Amino acid sequence: MNNMQMLATRLNSVAVFRNLLKDDVVSALSELLSVTDADITEKVNKYGNFAHMLYVHTENLSRYILNIVTNDENVFIKKVANGQIISDELNECVRAELSVFEELSKLSGAKLREFIGYDGFLPSWKTDEIDFETEYFSRCADIGKFGYGIYAKYHMFNVKDSVICPVKHPDPVMLSDLSGYKNERQAVIDNTKALIDGKPAANILLSGDAGTGKSSTIKAVVNEFKNLGLRIIEVRKDQLVDIPAIIDELSVNPLKFILFIDDLSFNQTDDNFSALKAILEGSVSAKSSNVAIYATSNRRHIVKESFKERDSSDDIHRNDTVQELMSLSERFGLAITFVKPSKECYLDIVRNIADHHNIEYDEEKMFMEAERFALIKGGRSARVAKQFVDSLISKQ
C-alpha cells in the first residue's frame, strides 16, 4: 500500500469528523486516493472530478479543508460548547483526525499527478502550511464568537416546516447605511450589546409608521455584530407556536440569538395572540439568556380592534378585555417608537444617503425634488428618502 492509499485508509477511519466524508470535495479526493489498478483514463477522470469539485468552492485546498473542519458539528464541539468534560480518549481521537485532514490539505497538484503517473496537463490549486490542531483548538476556545455547524457558516436564518434554515443571501444593510433615528437605533444597539455580553437583555417592540427603518435597524445591528457571535432567526406570525421549541434548541448553543418577528399584528380572535403572550411572559418555560425577541409593528398596541367591535361587544367585563389586548405590547421589556420624520429630518436623511453614495448635487434643487418625490409617494419616510436617492443614482 503506497502513501496515498494509506492516507485514504486513515481518512476512512475518522470517527469524530465522519460527517466530512460526505463532503463533495473530500469524497472526490478520497476516491482519487483509493485508486489501485485503474487505467490511466479512469485515474485522470477522478483527478478532474476532484479539481472540479474544489473549483466550485475555491482554488485553495488547504483553506477549504480547514473551513469545513472548523465548522463541523460533531460530538466533540458540542461538548466544548456545553462546557462538558472531554475524556482523554476523545481528545486523542480529535488530535489524530486533525493530523489526517492537515496532511490531506497539503496535497498539491504535482503530488497527485505523480501519484497517478500522468505527465499531461491537469489543473492545479493552492495549498498553505497550516497547523490544524492549533487553529481548531483556538476556535474551540472562542466558540462563543464563532459557533459551529450552520451557525458558523451563516448569520441569518428563517424557519421552514419547523426547521431552522440558513439565509444564504442575506440583506447586507449596515448601520452606516441608515440615517436619522439615532436615539432609537442606539437603544436597540445597547440592548443587543447586553445580550452579546451575557447581561439581561429585553425583548424589544419597534413600532411606528411604515418605512421608518424598523426592520432595517434590526438587520443592520445583526450584520454589525455577527463577528461577536450574534445570529438572527426570522419567525413569521403563523410560526409563533414553534418558538418554544426553537428556544429550547438554541438555549444550549454558545451563540446569541435574536428571534425576529416582522410586521406583527393580530385580530382579537387570532390564536397566535395567546401564543406570543405566553412566550413573552407567563410560560412555564424559563427565558433563555442567549435569546431575545425583536418584533416590529406599524401598530402601537399590535391588536386590531374596531369601534364597531367595541360598541357591539357583549363581554360583561369589557375593561378587563381591553386591558388584555393592550397588555401584549407591555410584555415587551423595551418599546421603541419610530415616527414619520419631519421635513427637516427627512431632508437630512436624503442628504446623508446622498453623501454616503458620493453623489454630487445642488442641495436646494435636490431638496425640492426630494419633497416632490415624497408628495408622489404619499408622505415622508426614511424608505422614501432612500428610494429618492436610488432614483438619482439610476439617472447618473
Explain how this protein is built.
This protein has 396 residues and is an alpha/beta fold. It has 3 domains: 3-153, no CATH class; 156-338, 3-Layer(aba) Sandwich (Rossmann fold), CATH 3.40.50.300; 343-395. It has 19 helices and 7 strands. Strands 2-1-4-5-6-3-7 form a 7-stranded mixed sheet, sandwiched between helices. β5, α14 (271-280) and β6 form a beta-alpha-beta unit. α17 packs across α18 (363-377) and α18 (363-377) packs across α19. The longest helix is centred in the N-terminal third of the chain and has 18 residues, at 40-57. The radius of gyration is 27 Å and the shape is globular. The termini are far apart. The model has no long low-confidence stretch (mean pLDDT 88).
